[in-house]
């Protein structure tokens, strides 16, 4: 089967062909480490994780880079508010992020890159953009990219350049701006003691620090090369961040920066955008504080296509957890023996995933496997564990339940009564087992005991 992905650049599903046969270079826009990641952020990272797992499942080697933005307007502002050094402040939230991705069973990227480790690389790119006349220095010493000098500006977000406002002169040099505010963006920000405090770098560009957009271009090009296969992020990154990445990267190299741009849709909460002011801003900790397994959030996301807006409500997440527990129960009842992977089910599972990561249909295959009475329990187990390589729902980590000795004795006694055709006594023993919190099922391979 061929891999097909929706490419934001072409606005259609494209056949996937890596630059180097058998190898994929993939970059994911990671978190700005100034706060805990919220559930919307996590959707972007879980989507990238599923994408990477599908690539690996298809036999490709993947070099995956995810950045940590540890220098920008927000990290400077909030570190100063807390009276901490930038490194001390961002290190705390980086560690919290690592805990979160472990909780939702994400594979770690090949490398995490911290923006502050790549300042020299950013400076080199900016110097080349100045030499090419694609960037200019403003009166305060900051350096901006001249978007009118890059003929393809707007090709990712489909913006009309004529809507551009005044150039950077006289405006606030903000890292982020809204979709109506098409303007030259900061590559290098001259040091402003009032805003930046003691945070700056002394470079050939002057005393200052990088803008947000140049960071990802420098980190991706340094670790993956001038051209990469796949770049992922949320739809909110399309403009201005990814549009600006293209302009500065292609402006400096003259080559196409990314072949496949892939973006996940928003997570809404009760049909509204998440915001602390709206009191609907949720993190993984909020989910865990309710006693909900964080993997249930991963499972809930997989129940929808990554390009579909999802509306988060607690009842839906609780329903997803109930379904996940049901799957765990069906899996636990399969026993210890691992047989052969079902070729038929694997083909169907792979076919759905290779069609733009169709996880909702892939999950239907998982349910079909577990409910198929014509498939042996050993082969079911092998097939589920194979699917687990992509789904990451924790089946491989489930520990076999220790059945108490009392329950085992009752089950053995019940088995004997069934052999003696004493079905009344057998039913009584089943009810007693149930009253103690366990259930017993009769299968072709004998009794299966599990916790209710």
Automatic annotation (TrEMBL):
One of its GO terms (cellular component) is cytosol. A motif ('KMSKS' region) lies at residues 273-277. Zn(2+) binds at residues 29, 216, 241, 245. ATP binds at residue 276. It holds the Pfam family CysS_C. Keywords: Aminoacyl-tRNA synthetase, ATP-binding, Cytoplasm, Ligase, Metal-binding, Nucleotide-binding, Protein biosynthesis, Zinc. Residues 348-403 form the Cysteinyl-tRNA synthetase class Ia DALR domain. Its cofactor is Zn(2+). It comes from the Bacteria. HAMAP family: Cys_tRNA_synth. Belongs to the class-I aminoacyl-tRNA synthetase family. This is Cysteine--tRNA ligase. It comes from Candidatus Nomurabacteria bacterium RIFCSPHIGHO2_12_FULL_37_29.
């Amino acid at each position: 089967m061929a891999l097909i992905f929706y490419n934001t650049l072409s606005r259609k599903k494209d056949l996937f062909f890596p630059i180097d046969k058998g190898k994929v270079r993939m970059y994911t826009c990671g978190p700005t480490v100034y706060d805990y990641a919220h559930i919307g952020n996590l959707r972007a990272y879980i989507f990238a994780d599923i994408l990477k797992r599908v690539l690996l499942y298809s036999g490709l080697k993947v070099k995956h880079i995810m950045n940590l933005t540890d220098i920008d307007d927000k990290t400077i502002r909030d570190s100063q508010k807390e009276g901490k050094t930038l490194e001390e402040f961002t290190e705390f939230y980086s560690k919290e992020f690592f805990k979160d991705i472990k909780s939702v069973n994400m594979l770690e990227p090949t490398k995490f890159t911290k923006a502050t480790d790549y300042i020299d690389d950013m400076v080199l790119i900016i110097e080349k953009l100045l030499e090419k006349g694609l960037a200019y220095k403003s009166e305060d010493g900051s350096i901006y990219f001249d978007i009118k000098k890059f003929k393809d500006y707007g090709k990712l977000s489909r913006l009309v350049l004529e809507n551009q406002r005044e150039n950077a002169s006289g405006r606030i040099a903000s890292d982020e701006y809204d979709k109506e505010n098409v303007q030259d963006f900061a590559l290098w920000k001259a040091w402003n003691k009032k805003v930046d405090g003691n945070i700056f770098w002394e470079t050939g560009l002057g005393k200052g620090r990088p803008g947000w957009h140049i960071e990802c271009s420098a980190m991706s090009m340094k670790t993956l090369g001038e051209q990469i296969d796949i770049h992922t992020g949320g739809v909110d990154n399309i403009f201005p961040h990814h549009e600006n990445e293209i302009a500065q990267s292609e402006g400096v190299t003259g080559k196409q920066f990314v072949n496949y741009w892939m973006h996940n849709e928003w997570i809404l909460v009760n049909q509204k955008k998440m915001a602390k002011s709206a009191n609907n801003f949720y993190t993984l900790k909020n989910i865990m504080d309710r006693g909900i397994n964080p993997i249930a959030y991963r499972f809930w996301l997989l129940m929808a296509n990554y390009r579909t807006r999802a509306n988060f409500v607690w009842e839906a997440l609780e329903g997803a957890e109930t379904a996940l527990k049901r799957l765990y129960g069906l899996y636990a009842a399969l026993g210890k023996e691992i047989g052969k992977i079902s070729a038929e089910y694997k083909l169907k599972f792979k076919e759905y995933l290779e069609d733009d990561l169709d996880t909702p249909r892939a999950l239907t295959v998982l349910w079909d496997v577990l409910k198929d009475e014509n498939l042996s329990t050993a082969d079911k187990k092998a097939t589920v564990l194979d699917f687990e390589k992509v789904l990451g729902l924790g089946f491989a980590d489930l520990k076999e339940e220790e059945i108490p000795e009392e329950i085992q004795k009752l089950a053995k006694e019940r088995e004997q009564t069934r052999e003696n055709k004493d079905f009344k006594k057998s039913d009584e023993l089943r009810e007693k087992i149930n009253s103690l919190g366990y259930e017993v099922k009769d299968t072709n391979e004998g009794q299966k005991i599990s916790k209710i």
